[in-house]
Amino acid sequence: TTGEIKFYHRGVEPVAFVLAPENAPEWVYDRQVLWNEVEKSEKRSDSQLAREINVALPKELNYEQQEELVKEFVQDNFVNHGMVADVAIHRDDENNPHFHVMLTMRYIDENGFGKKAREWNPG
């Protein structure tokens, strides 16, 4: 095998990318390394590793507009607050365009993950 992972549903591959704070190490852009590092940063077997958010997209927007909207929303609401965001935009159903975001739970800097950011937890 090539080690390459493909996600297809109804013949459509999602648009996927990682957004991260400017001071994050380069390895965060490799999903396999990112999520392995997330797991390694936790000590407890029952630790929460990530937070997932699913958001519907306006089907009136074209693909480029949807992608720009997603990037702006994720950057403003999560990445600018220190989270790493693993994003997948799904358009396999033209009546239900949406995106998924997996968010890290810890601060990150050039040295890797630090303390859990408790203020990111819902109130």
TrEMBL record:
The keyword Metal-binding does not apply. Keywords: Conjugation. Residues 3-117 form the MobA/MobL protein domain. Belongs to the MobA/MobL family. It comes from the Bacteria. The keyword Kinase does not apply. This is MobA/MobL protein domain-containing protein. InterPro entries: MobA_MobL (IPR005053).
